[in-house]
Amino acid sequence: MVNFNGDLLPDSNHFLNGQNRGLQFADALSERLRYTGSVLLFWEAHYFRLMASMRQLRMEIPMEFTLEYLQEEVLKTLSASGRAETPCEIGITVFRQSGTGFLPLSQSISYVIDCVPLESAEFPQDSPGLVADLFKDYYLQADGLSQLPHNMKLPWVLAAIYADENDFDTCLLVNHRKEIAQGLHGNLFLRKGQELKTPPLSDGCSDDILRKFLLKQEWKDMPYKLHETHISPFELQQADELFMLDISKGVSSITQYRKAKYSREAATFVLNMINGHIQEQT
User: Fold this and answer.
1) How is the chain split among helix, strand and coil, in percent rounded to 5?
2) What is the H or E stretch that residue 30 is in?
3) Of 53, 246, 250, 280, which sits with the fewest C-beta atoms within 10 Å of its C-beta?
4) Model confidence over 218-235: pLDDT tens digits?
5) CATH number of 2-117
6) Which CATH number does 130-281 carry?
C-alpha cells in the first residue's frame, strides 16, 4: 500500500507517468525514516529537514503540510498496510508536478509515502565487516545540493556497480577536491586513537539525521573526541577504524581497505548508544 497525495493505493497501482519530473530530471526529494511500531524516530528532525530541502529547491510547500498532517498521513499509510504495530522504514518522496522541459510549469508538488517492514525497531548488530575501495571514476560536487536528500544518485549507482564488479562490499566516494565525502553505506567516521572524525557538510556528505544526532549528543562516558574535519584518502590506511552511519542501514563497519585492516570498537559503542536511545523512545 502506498499513499499518493493522500489517496491509499495498492503497490501495483500505476500512478506515475512518463512526464513525471522525478523520473525525467530527478526533480525530487526522498526522506527516509524509521518507525518502531509505535513511534516515528526523530520525526521533527526529519520533517524540518524535508521542509528546508523543499524550500532550497524552490518547491511550493502546500499549506496543509504541517508536522501533524504529514505524521497523520504516514500513520494512515501504516494502518492501511496492516503495519501500524510493525517496525518499518518509511519513505516520503516529493516531486514537482508533471511538465516537459527544464523550467517547471508549476512549483506545486505531489508526494508518495511508502513503508517497508523491518525485523526490529533497533538497528541490527554490525555485519561481519565490509571490504571497501575508493571510487574515483566520478566525483561528488561538494555544494549546497550535496547535503539534500535529492534523487540524483548516479554516482552512488555507478559506485555500487563498480564494487559489485570488483568483489568489494562497499565504496567510499570523493568530492571534486579529492577529499572523502561519504560512502555507499552512509557518512564516514574515521577513528585514530581516541579521535573520531567525520567530513563536514561542506565536503559533500549527507546531512543525515543520525549523523546530526551523533554530533549533537553529549554521550555519557564518551571515550572519543568527536569532530568534523577534512579526511584525505591518504589517511584511510593509517586509521584504526572506519565505519559508516546511515538512517536506513545503521552502523556499517569497514574491516578492510586495500592492505589495511581495522577494529570496530567505536562502531560498537555508537551502535549501542543509538539503540539505547531507540529503546528509550519505545
Assistant:
1) 30, 30, 40
2) strand 28-35
3) 280
4) 666 788 999 999 999 999
5) 3.30.470.10
6) 3.20.10.10
